[in-house]
Amino acid sequence: MELEARFGVTNYAPLPVALSRAAGCQVWDVDGQAYLDFMSAYSAVSHGHAHPRLVAVLQAQASRLAVVSRAFYSDRLGEFLARACELCKLEQALPMNTGAEAVETAIKAARRWAYRVKGVADDQAGIIACNGNFHGRTLGAIGLSGEADYRRDFGPFAPGSQLVPFGDARALAQAISPATAAFIVEPIQGEGGIVVPPAGYLAECAQICARENVLLIADEIQTGLGRTGKLLACDHESVRPDLLLLGKALGGGLLPVSLVLGRREILGLFEPGSHGSTFGGNPLAAAVGLEALNVLLEEGLIDNAASQGEYLMQQLGQLAQPAVQAIRGRGLLQGMELDPQQVQAHRVCSALLKRGILTRETHGNVLRLAPPLIVKRHQIDAAVTQIDAALTECA
Ligand SMILES: Cc1ncc(COP(=O)(O)O)c(C=O)c1O
C-alpha cells in the first residue's frame, strides 16, 4: 500500500486491503484473511477466480503461442470469432482488449457507416447517448458522458454527441436528426447506479432506431455474458442491436478481451489499415475468450445468475433496514440504494470489508452487489447476513 501510494497515481481510492490469492467466489488477503467477492472486478470475474478450465487453457496457450499481432493469422482467432458471432447472432466481430477500446471502435464504425451508407455530410455524424451513461475513460467515451467529474479539465471533446434521459424512448425519437449515426445505450446502467429502464424501453429504442435509420449500439460490456440471467441483457426484450459491445467477463477473469460484433454492412466498412490493435485478437486472448464462452454455456452459469439473482433480491428485500430506499437490478447485477441521510454506502463497504465481504459503492449511495455467476445460495445467505449487520452498525 505504501509503494502504491508513493509511486502510483491516485486515480483510484482502494479500500485498505491487499489481496493476494483467490479461487471461485473467495479471495484472501496477504494475512490469509478470507473474503467473499461480491464485486467480481466490476463484472470481469463472472466465471469466478481462477476457473480451472480457463486457467488450463491460459497456461497451455501461453506456452504454445501468445502474441503474434494481426500481421499474421493464428490458429485460434477464427474459432473464437465464429463462436461469438454464432452465440450473439451477428455476422462479424472485431477483437480489441478493453471495454473502452470496444466503445471507441463502435463510434468509428458508426461514423463510417453514417458517411458511407447513410449519406451524412462530412464530419457531421452525431452520436446520441444517455444521461448517467458509463462507456469507459478514453476521450471518446468521456466525450459521451454527462458526468462533470469524468470530464473536468480533459477537454476539448469531439463535437456531435448529445445526451437524452435514460429510459425515455420518446426523448430519443425527438433527439434524432438526419445527421445522427447511432444511439449508444447500456441495457442496465452499471456505473450509473445499477439503473434498470422501464420494461419495453430497449425494444422501443430498437424500433425507433430502425425506423429512423440510426444504428443501435448496445454496450453490454458489463451486462453481457450471463450477468443479468440471459446471455445478453438485450435478450430480455428480444432486441438484436446493430453493434454489440462485449468485454470484461469475455476474458474469463484472466485477461482483457473485448469484441465489437455487428452486421457485415457496418463492420465490413473497416478496410486494412483503418483500425487495429497490437494485442487485439491475440491467440492467448482468443483461446481464453472461446473457453470463457464455452464455460458460460456448458456449466449453467447463465441459469445460475437468473436463479441466484432472484434469490438475492428476495433476501435483500426482506431486510428490515430503514436506510434501504430501493433494490434494483437483474440477475446478479444488483444495487441497493441507501438513504444518505441515514447511512453512507462507503462506510457500509468498509464495515463489510471487516466482515469478510468485498464490494464497493457505485454512483453516490448505491451498494453494488455483483458476485461471480457461480455463486452458491449459502454464499448469498452469508453475504446478506453481513450486509444486514453492517447496515445496522453504520446507521
Ligand atoms: C458499460 C461499460 N462500458 C464500458 C466500460 C469500460 O470498460 P474498460 O474499463 O474495460 O475500459 C465499462 C467499465 O466499467 C462499462 O461498465
Describe the SSE topology.
Layout: H1 2-7, E1 19-23, E2 26-29, E3 34-37, H2 40-43, H3 52-64, H4 77-88, E4 92-96, H5 99-118, E5 126-130, H6 139-143, H7 148-151, E6 161-164, H8 169-175, E7 180-185, H9 201-212, E8 215-219, E9 243-246, E10 258-262, H10 264-267, H11 283-298, H12 301-317, E11 324-330, E12 333-338, H13 345-354, E13 357-358, E14 361-362, E15 366-369, H14 377-394
Helix pairs in contact: 3-11, 4-11, 12-14, 13-14
Bound molecules: pyridoxal-5'-phosphate (PLP).
Offer a few descriptive terms.
alpha/beta; Aspartate Aminotransferase, domain 1; Aspartate Aminotransferase, domain 2; 4-stranded mixed beta sheet; 14 helices; binds pyridoxal-5'-phosphate
The gist of it:
With 395 residues, this protein is α/β, with parallel strands linked by helices. Helix content is 37%, strand content 17%.
Q: Would you mind describing this structure in some detail?
A:
The chain has 395 residues and is α/β, with parallel strands linked by helices. The protein folds into 2 domains: 2-49 and 301-394, Aspartate Aminotransferase, domain 1; 52-298, 3-Layer(aba) Sandwich (Aspartate Aminotransferase, domain 2). Helices cover 37% and strands 17% of the residues. It is built from 14 helices and 15 strands. It has helices spanning 2-7, 40-43, 52-64, 77-88, 99-118, 139-143, 148-151, 169-175, 201-212, 264-267, 283-298, 301-317, 345-354, 377-394, and strands spanning 19-23, 26-29, 34-37, 92-96, 126-130, 161-164, 180-185, 215-219, 243-246, 258-262, 324-330, 333-338, 357-358, 361-362, 366-369. The chain has a 7-stranded mixed sheet, with helices on both faces. Strands 1-2-3-13 form a 4-stranded mixed sheet. Helix 3 runs antiparallel to helix 11, helix 4 runs parallel beside helix 11 and helix 12 (301-317) packs parallel to helix 14 (377-394). Bound molecules: pyridoxal-5'-phosphate.
